[in-house]
Amino acid sequence: MEGLSGADADLVVYLHPSKSMKVSQGILRELSSLLFKFNKTFGGVLLAYDVNILDKQAKILSGVHPYFGLRLKANLLLFSPKSDMLLEGKVVKLSQESIHVIVLGFSSAIIATENIRGEFKYKTKDEEELFASRSHKRHVIKIGTMIRFSVKR
Amino acid sequence: MGLELPKNPDMDQDNVVNFTDSEIVSHVKDALTSLLSGDSNSYNQLVGVMHHSKQLAPDEVALLETTLKALAGAVSCIDITLHDSLLSAIFSMSLWNYGPHVADALVELIVSLAISNGKYLDLCLGMLVSNFTPPPYFLDKLKLPRGLERKGQVLSRVHAAFKKIADYVPLAPLRLLTMVQQGMPTVYHKDRAILIYVENMLTLESGEIGELVGSTMLMAVVDRLIELDLEIGWDAILQDDFSKGIFEMELEDLEDIVDSAEPDIGEFRLSRKSLAGNSIAELLDNLLVLTFEHLESCERAGRLAKVFETLLRSFLLTVMTAYKSKFTQFVVFYACSLDPENCGMRFAIMLADLFVQDSHPQSTRMSSVAYLASYLSRAKFLSASFISSMLKRLVDWCLEYCNTHDVDINPNAHRVFYSGCQAIMYVLCFRMKVFMDVPRLKSQLLMPLEQILKHKLNPLKVCLPSVVEEFLRQAKAASLFTVSKTFIFDGLLESELSRAFGGLERLDTFFPFDPCLLKRCDSFIRPMFVFWSMVKPTYEDAYDDENDDGSSDDDSIQDFANENEDIMNDVGKSFDEQQLDLDEFDCALKKMSITPKNSFGYKFGGRFQEPTRMPSRIRPSTSPESL
Question: What confidence score (pLDDT) does residue B111 get?
Fold first, then answer.
């Protein structure tokens, strides 16, 4: 699957003084709040991180806010699909108009009818919806199938 | 204005047209795409059908349903900017206005929209959340059977829609969380909208996406409860049941009441304030009952332990840190009563742990032990052995404190210690008779306790006089130990010393689980609550012969009436309490430990009463009593 990448990052985390007793908890919480969200700096959706705290002592920010900053080194797993990349996902819904896919368990994608290869025809067989290929008899797409598709936008 | 359907040459005379679904869908798609080329006729007709949604004739209903279904199939052709009038018409529709078929079609459309494109997700979720509450005209009909039926229809569809959307868009619950929290009606709405909204939040908690959103929902509900709790001033509640107008006017209250200009319409102000307090109190009452019922359903489903963890977290974060929360803590009390072995004990142990740890701030420790003391005294469902083990922890801690601090009395410096001692004495006032019957407990607890009480730090002098007096009276009657000096307090409310250790927050007079003054809540809590009148003090047998003196002082009966929970609640009597008429309540009055010689002061077992003053005297807001 394309679109997944690992990255090494040097980060600085600013913590509120109330977290001074439980610093590692504070850091993990800060980083966790970034999970599954698109981050411009990282250039992708953060999926996972592995963190090492560098400083033994933290530096207090000068100025009005008494937050203290900690430097970290982190390994990040990022997901940033671009156009024409191939992704795999599991089918969750089939309809005449579209196929709904979930990628990596958190990201949803839709493939509209016009983008589905012509050989596939929408059928309802025994109460089950599927897309059957006209050229290859065995090739069907049902709910739960893993499919590969390319990213349009 | 109907949809212009393509003319079918085989159309019957009475205009019955049979089109396949796909034909209708393609027609709608054409209508949508035709807008691009400038032809807006069919599109406008579509929008027209959406808008025309009140008082529909049956065929109009059918048309609406068909249109909605067709739109659901055509979502891929909807453009967020091009078709904004159609979209705004769809999102402003309320499920409460329609019957089941149209509602189904509408929900299907919303779900399809939500999963088709990330841009619509927030809008669709927002539309569903706004359907938590019915339109204003419907609020009154909610109690009627028809209203209830409609409510069931709408809400079941809304929650099913959430589940469906969550299935196809895994991160949707995250968005939903923020929306539900932001959409909460504020305290100032004061109508039943918030009730039904909270009901929905609790349904989300126990629903299919409950795993993801449940704990946040519960914490948000507790936050709202506390907000309402704090809106109710202590005065408004206390004076609710006063027939005589002994009222205090707080400087803060004057600011609240904007309208009245004349300074001497004291009574008018009081009644307005009481009324204002009343409606909020009623709202809080109803919300608390909703929460209690939800907890009951959690218990039936076997989920109470998990929900309780969230509740405890919320309690620590919100309730304990609120200044003298009045009723919200009863949520935890009720949860404990539903599962005494797990939740009940867990709560007490957590409070005790908080108290003994040095790392917590002073006021947290003091308030924690105040909660513990009140809880151990009032919970009918806790076993004597558990209470004694908790007491033992407190006693051991206090004893160690005494041994490491060989210093003289100093209320300010040893606040945590004094609050611990007061807690022990308070619990023993309620439970002493029980312990007397078990000789082993007597030796384990009472010998160290004697050491503590006779220490240089002199807790008997510092702790709240009403508590100390009652404790000593019972201790004497049970021949536990005698103190060399006599402590005479004359029914005093408090002393300088107790005020000193209580501090600005007055944690010396904080008894959080005193009887709940909200009527509906009280009927839930009553069966597992220990009222002071139910306690048999150790001196009781001896007491009936003494003290026949004037307890029928009008004022004291008035105050007593205010505080004695039996009198106040003329509704919801449990099998324990009967209607007390004046004779019985004289007798109950005698059973009270303190026969008030004056009407000032904290009556043991009742609610803390502000000292009564001359009417219409305005107390300066700097005085610590002006809560």
Answer: 92
Q: Would you say how long chain B is, in residues?
A: 627
Q: Which residue intervals of chain A bear CATH 2.40.50.1060?
A: 85-151
Domains assigned to chain B: 19-183 (1.25.40)
Nearest by CB to B168, which of A97, A100, A105? A100
**CA-based torsion, B593, B594, B599, B605: positive or negative:** negative
| Amino acid B217: pLDDT | 92
- B156-185 per-position pLDDT tens digit: 999 999 999 998 888 899 889 999 998 888
Is the Cβ pair B171, A106 closer than 8 Å?
A: yes
Q: Select the highest-mean-pLDDT range: A137-141, B191-195, B242-246, B301-305.
A: B301-305
Output Rg (C-alpha) for chain A, integer angstroms.
Answer: 22
Q: What are the start and end residues of each CATH 3.30.1490 domain in chain A?
A: 4-79
ipTM of the shown complex: 0.83
Cα B111 to Cα B92: distance, rounded to the nearest angstrom: 15
Chain A residues in contact with chain B using a Cβ-Cβ cutoff of 8 Å: 21, 36, 92-93, 95-98, 100, 102, 105-108, 110, 112-113
Chain B partners within 8 Å of A100 (Cβ): 115, 168
- Give the CA-trace dihedral at B293, B296, B301, B305, to 10 degrees: 120
Give the Cα separation of A99 and A92 in Å (integer): 8
CB contact under 8 A, B115 and A93: yes
| CATH code that applies to domain A85-151 | 2.40.50.1060
Taking alpha carbons only, the member of A130, A153, A128 closest to residue A142 is: A130
Nearest 5°: phi and psi at A44?
A: 180, -175
Residue that wins the pLDDT comparison between A128 and B221: B221
Q: State which CATH number among 1.10.150, 3.30.420, 3.40.50, 3.30.1490 fits the domain covering A4-79.
A: 3.30.1490
Q: Reduce the DSSP state of residue B447 to 3 states and report it.
A: helix
| Position B291 confidence tier, pLDDT thresholds 50, 70, 90 | very high
Residue B52 pLDDT exceeds 70? yes
